[in-house]
Design brief:
eleven-stranded antiparallel sheet; globular; transferase; kinase activity; kinase
């Protein structure tokens, strides 16, 4: 039996369109399933907890929505061994990118039904879990501004989630101030006199496909960290196009780190978002949680 949780409002109604395609295929193939539509993170989490507490043996839990919808279900899914199946229907869809899930609905469904369950790590922060990335500072503020904007809905309508993020960068540049930042990574301390942002990643990309940590792997038990520091606004602005292809790592104002335990302190309180959702603010400590999730992936990964 397969279980589906559908955020029909994700991607400006894209979630509902994706679900109709899934439902038609399931019916044509006589595959047993249950589903629910969700209007909030709390509703989705409660529904999943109730379903997982029954005696039904679930083959996988399919989530139709964006990274935020998936994020809300992590507490219920972690350590259960029940695979997560991703159906990208949001604006960022970095979970799908991180696990190489096709954007085409029928191909994503094939992975749920015939793919390979892959053990994956989580990022643990303040008792909460994140699957893709923890954004701290400028990048978190960009995501927050995008989430609260009108242009996000317009971009989603035309399938341009990445464009919304680029607009958010220019929007945030007007008001954000860099500040001193200290990062302790597996016991080694790094000081930055004027840091813009720190990204702690479990997968390669965030922000709708920006390859911030190109060497990150979701199952290696290690977190990849990218710190952008001591650069001008112009240099920061010119950095973002390089993130599309992960070509920023050799720039003199970019520091790449790797570790299992990461602590971040800042002279100014910095917003921290996990999977694009508000988690906490600095100071914070994040750790790798190896093998806490199972995700359906292609056999070719």
């Amino acid at each position: 039996m397969y279980l589906f949780i559908v955020n029909k409002n994700s991607g400006n109604g894209g979630g509902f369109r994706v679900w109709k395609k899934i439902q038609e295929t399931l019916r044509n193939r006589n595959i047993s399933y249950e589903y629910t539509f969700t209007d909030s993170a709390e509703q989705a989490h409660t529904f999943l907890q109730e379903k997982l507490s029954t005696s039904i043996s679930w083959n996988a839990v399919g989530v139709v929505g964006g990274d935020g919808t998936i994020h809300s279900l992590l507490p219920a899914l972690r350590d259960t061994g029940i695979p997560l199946a991703v159906f990208p229907a949001g604006s960022g869809n970095d979970t799908a990118r991180g696990f190489r899930i096709p954007m085409k609905t029928t191909a994503a469904l094939d992975i749920m039904l015939e793919g390979l369950p892959k053990v994956a790590d989580l990022i643990s922060i303040s008792g909460k879990s994140t699957l893709t990335a923890l954004a701290v500072g400028f990048d978190a503020q960009v995501a927050q501004n995008v989430n609260n904007s009108r242009y996000k809905k317009i971009c989603n309508k035309f399938g341009l989630g990445r464009v919304a993020y680029v607009i958010g960068v220019f929007h945030t540049l007007l008001t954000f101030r860099p500040a001193p930042l200290t990062i302790e990574c597996d016991g080694e301390t790094h000081h930055f006199s004027s840091a813009w942002m720190a990204a702690v990643n479990n997968v390669t990309s965030y922000g709708g496909g920006l390859t911030i940590c190109p060497d990150a792997l979701p199952d290696d038990g290690v977190l990849d960290i990218c710190v952008v520091h001591d650069c001008s606004r112009l240099q920061l602005m010119m950095l973002f196009p390089t993130l599309l292809y992960g070509k920023h790592t050799r720039l003199p104002f970019v520091k790449m780190l790797r570790g299992r335990l990461v602590s971040i302190q800042s002279s100014l309180p910095r917003l921290a978002l996990g999977d694009g959702e508000h988690i906490t603010s600095t100071p914070l400590t994040a750790s790798a949680d190896p093998g806490a999730m199972t995700v359906m992936t292609s056999h070719s990964i």
